[in-house]
Amino acid sequence: MCRHLGWLGADVPVSSLVLDPPNGLLVQSYSPRRQKHGLMNADGWGVGFFDASGPAPVPRRWRSPAPLWGEVSFHSVAPALRSHCVVAAVRSATAGMPIEASATAPFTDGRWLLSHNGVVDRAVLPRAPGAESICDSALLAAAIFARGLDQLGDTIVEIANADPNARLNVLAANGVRLLGTAWGDTLCVLRRDDGVVLASEPYDDDSDWEDVPDHHLVEVTAAGVRMTPLDPPKGP
Ligand code: GLN
């Protein structure tokens, strides 16, 4: 399973979320603490953020199929990249999936940034245009974008019904909303004074980190954090 992180709050340097924390995505790329599937996340990384310098926030991405720990140019530039809304991931590719930048989260439809932590049988996914790769996560992202993020919870439950072995932890943000699902893997939330972090695992030992229960949807907006249970998958 990959590890991912989302941020909605004040304008902060991307490095302060991804590189600097003692157990942030950089350390999680080689030594995750809570990962249940796979030992490390060396098959690529992606950092997406909303650029608010123009009239409307625009999603921008930097993705690579190389391990995050070796990306010295990104390490140099990341302190100068600031955003109020970030979706970032380090990847442990599922067997059989391509290792290429286009298969690496976050994916986008031009409005949302989306990361998937998990695995899903591609045969059960509704066909949708615009997938960036044949990777399961890219096809899942296209299906979620086509259905609309307002339907994220229903979409996850339907796909889980079609593939009971699927693990469907999704993070998505559009600059004003940050959504996360816990479905088969860990998801944690940290409410800071200056914003909210959703992450596969805590990036430090702050006692304010809370675990999101499995089969839940989390929505973060300026109004706060809301957690909603998702329906359990139906039996055979
Ligand atoms: N299945 C996705 C991939 O191959 C995500 C893998 C993961 O969460 N480790 O990239």
TrEMBL record:
UniProt KW keywords: Glutamine amidotransferase, Hydrolase, Transferase
Keyword Cell membrane: no
Enzyme Commission number(s) from the entry: 3.5.1.118
Catalytic activity from the UniProt record: gamma-L-glutamyl-hercynylcysteine S-oxide + H2O = S-(hercyn-2-yl)-L-cysteine S-oxide + L-glutamate
Gene3D superfamilies assigned: Glutamine Phosphoribosylpyrophosphate, subunit 1, domain 1
Database matches in SUPFAM superfamilies: N-terminal nucleophile aminohydrolases (Ntn hydrolases) (SSF56235)
A Pfam family annotated for this UniProt entry: GATase_4
PROSITE patterns per record: GATASE_TYPE_2
Coiled coil location: none
All copies of domain Glutamine amidotransferase type-2, residue ranges: 2-236
Pathway assignment: Amino-acid biosynthesis; ergothioneine biosynthesis
Keyword Transferase: yes
Gene Ontology molecular-function annotations: hydrolase activity, acting on carbon-nitrogen (but not peptide) bonds, in linear amides; transferase activity
GO BP term, example: ergothioneine biosynthetic process
UniProt enzyme class: hydrolase
Function in brief: Catalyzes the hydrolysis of the gamma-glutamyl amide bond of hercynyl-gamma-L-glutamyl-L-cysteine sulfoxide to produce hercynylcysteine sulfoxide, a step in the biosynthesis pathway of ergothioneine.
HAMAP family hit by this protein: EgtC
Identification of the protein by name: Gamma-glutamyl-hercynylcysteine sulfoxide hydrolase
Species this chain originates from: Mycobacterium bohemicum
